[in-house]
Amino acid sequence: MKGLPKIGSYLADDLGVSRIAIVWANTEFGRGGYDAFMTVDADEGMEVVADIPTEQAQVDFAADVTRVISSGAEAVFVYLTEEESARFLIAARQQGLSIPMAGDTVLVSQRVIDLAGDAANGALGHVGLSAAAPIPAIQEMSGRFEERFGYVHDQNAIKGYLGAWTVRYVTELIGDFDREAFAKRMNGLCLDAANYPNILMDVCWDETGEISRASFLVEVVDGAQVITRMLPAN
User: Fold this and answer.
1) Torsions phi, psi for 214 (to 5 deg)
2) Other beta carbons within 10 Å of 87
3) Alpha-carbon distances, residue 73 vs 10, 15, 54, 90, 208 (angstroms)
4) Which of 44, 99, 110, 196 would you label with 50, given CA atoms 20 to 30 Å apart?
5) Where are the alpha helices (DSSP H) in the chain?
6) How far apart are CA 202 and CA 196, in angstroms?
């Protein structure tokens, strides 16, 4: 959810959106994203013209799309699970919804793209990691992954790869695997890709363990994530 201010700023400042609809999962997961985006929305001065909570594992989104269309919204922010996001995008395509559809990582994930097919094209989102990132080390890692497993991975594969290498690098820095020493060393730690190549991108953790690194705005084009902008670390 830390990417929501970036997607909110993109909608308001770059696309000029002043009236927005919000479609969100009425669950603990969805509530967290909804509350976070409402704060972003207030900061950006956008008017919420349609606030649409949905049911868990909802199948039919036709009525929700109709509400978005009738609201006069200039864009819609979507915060649903992967399966629900795909169903919403399909319903939006069927009803000819033509305004920007934006979300965080889930809306533009490879799983949603695979489920929604052509209906995913045009979806916008903020991602912390992407196989399409214009970072040579990520491109190399992604190529090796696709050659071995035969498909394009999503951000979760990169997270797993980075997690394993982070454990190795930090363990080497402290000299042994000790949980307390590991946690203490992580606070305020920075690892740069020049000296720690398998970390792929320069990354830091603050004193609370919150991660900071560059991230990306993406658009789904022809069934794939396309990076439209690289954003600096927080």
Assistant:
1) -60, 155
2) 24
3) 16, 13, 18, 19, 38
4) 110
5) 4-9, 28-44, 62-71, 82-94, 110-116, 136-149, 155-174, 179-186
6) 9
Which residues are 76's β-sheet partners? 21, 101
Please name which of 62, 35, 46 lies closest in space to residue 8, comparing C-alpha atoms.
46
pLDDT digit string, tens, across residues 120-142: 999 999 988 888 888 999 999 99
pLDDT, one tens digit per residue, over 47-82 is 999 999 999 889 999 999 999 999 999 999 999 999
Q: Where are the domains of the chain?
A: 4-128+214-231, 136-212
* pLDDT at residue number 2: 61
The whole-model pTM stands at 0.83
Nearest to 123 by CA among 138, 139, 104: 104
Q: Which helix (H) or strand (E) holds 218?
A: strand 215-221
Tell me: the pLDDT tens digits for 174-208? Answer: 998 899 999 999 999 999 999 999 999 999 999 88
Instruction: Confirm if 72 and 49 have CB atoms less than 8 A apart.
Output: yes
Report the alpha-carbon distance of residue 119 to residue 86 in Å, rounded.
Answer: 8
